[in-house]
TrEMBL record:
Transmembrane segments: 61-81, 93-110, 116-135, 147-169, 189-210, 231-256, 276-300, 307-324
Subcellular location: Cell membrane
UniProt keyword list: Cell membrane, Membrane, Transmembrane, Transmembrane helix, Transport
Source organism, top-level taxon: Bacteria
Full protein name: Iron ABC transporter permease
Claim: Ribosomal protein is one of the keywords in the record: no
Amino acid sequence: MTKSRGWSLLALLAALTALAFAGSLTLGIVPVPLRSVLDAFGAFDGSREQLIIRTVRLPRAVIAVIVGSALAVAGCLMQAISRNALAGPELFGINYGAALTAVLASFWLGTSSLRLFAASSLLGAAFAGLLVLGLGAARPSLSPVKLVLAGSMLNLLFASLTQGILILNEQSLDTMRFWLAGSLTGRDMALLLQVLPYLLVGLLIALVLSHPLNVFKLGEEVARNLGQRIGAIRIAAIAAVVLLAGGAVAIAGPIGFVGLAVPHMARSLTGGDYRWVIPCAAALGALLLLSADIAARFVLPDREIPVGVVTAFFGAPFLIYLAGRKEKSL
């Protein structure tokens, strides 16, 4: 992919994301004219519409951009280092691993500290990611589909344990049920700022790895012969996945299928060069989650549904398609 085409593609995706961002501010159960949106920042008068924009929709839209980008880039890294088209934070147990430790920390310590919530989510993501990727390294004979099945079983185990803990604590169940479905509702900038450093470090690591990953995808033996440090690349990629997926779950809960689907879309647009795949995936992830969040406001009359329900609705058929296509190529 040429630089001119790559920059043109990124500019187009940025423009579409900006349109979706504007739509996220104006569209909803309470429609807000674009003029009122502009006044909320330039001529704030404390009206109901402007308060909705500044305290509810703006943080929600910003969080959708950041979480969507983080999950998409995490999916890119997982698919690259495992060379598995079905890899993703939601299928390898990382999302619910982060959710489980966050719920455990809240249950045992009886606190909703943002710092504790973020740290525990990152620990859970690290544990789940290392467990599944370690399984793949220990059993190289496992096919990609079988490895995904192992990750899915781990994800179900973590999800069941999480629900069991919440049943024991009814108060936690009431406060966290929307979070566990994957939701942007009720999130504020304080939570985002608490987790943002982890996400920025993860994204920076991903961008630094973009060139080595182009060599890594040729095969470990080829990459090693070309002077690449395979172990260091894998460890750095896993660290970035943990920071990105764990941070995203800490903010919005376990939103599914963004990390699985977006990397395929980015590769189809860029031709597979990770120097362009990763930034394009970040833009596409933001665009997808913004669009899904807007759709979640209109599925039911006078009621919003969690954005994770929308992404799962469209992501499940995509997973079935990928699994079928992968099976044919084995």
